[in-house]
């Protein structure tokens, strides 16, 4: 018989607030509960679709519980599923690995949390045998493939594997239980419920392989739609996928072409129109966090760079009452029809700021040392915000230094013209 289940991963309950939230207390309140709201909506969707079960393929938590409210909240939601006869099957990933949890979830009878040894749960749904195979992370790192440890498929059953994996990985990131799509297909399961990568990915072949992505983005690095995957299995074993949104909040970039704009009031009017259009565009999420990206050639480029904070506040004022928040402004502007901000300054000073300072070894070392000191003062779970290793942190410092040099010239030029 046909049946339906819901597949999600990477909710990161209790994740630390990102910098955008720390700048805005009202937004902090929204982001602080966004992952919980998303999980409640996942349960709502399970109930509305009368699914047979829910699978969570790792990183349900962001780490250890930062609040005693989280396990209590989670248990209440799982009890809603239990009351409807819906099972829940949870895998532990790198963020919520078994070794990182200080206490075990008091799960209701409908909930299975896979352990560090491979195991199989066998179900019968309206006469259809279903086998769920899973293996949780014991430690936060899993540099070797876990696939060889997964059980063989059960003959005659619909075989579903839960795995937290980076697949073939990506440059600059550590591998987590790495494996290839070909290897997953060769294992003989019908469906692979994956987690770890926060972007949705679907592969159709001998097996259906789905990375659902995170159901709720946490910052502008996770911009765009977030979703869960509703899976319908037909009488003949065919698999149909539906992408469903449950996120209360969405992060997005807003492209703003400023080419030819020469007056500040025209710039504000242009920004207002763009924000109004973004607010009125259809979307599934309740709230929208935007990062306006200003591009193009304009005589206002140096002034925008100098008065970025003022323009940011103007944007936030324009977004008030529109269910919008402004993250920050991203400037990719070029000068047009006006002198560069450093043109009125001595050439040696301009060369020093534009060319010498960004390449100065002592300055770069001092910036790296300051970033490392800042990282030491942050909670352990937030330190990756400045880079996962020294090379990444140094690259961030160089990027910020390059971004800051036009601002220095703009400030110096403004003072010189006063």
Automatic annotation (TrEMBL):
InterPro entries: Calcineurin-like_PHP, DNA_Repair-Maintenance_Comp, Metallo-depent_PP-like, Mre11_N. Keywords: Exonuclease, Hydrolase, Nuclease. It comes from the Bacteria. Residues 4-199 form the Calcineurin-like phosphoesterase domain. Coiled coil: none annotated. SUPFAM superfamilies: Metallo-dependent phosphatases. GO terms for molecular function: exonuclease activity. Pfam families: Metallophos (PF00149). This is DNA repair exonuclease.
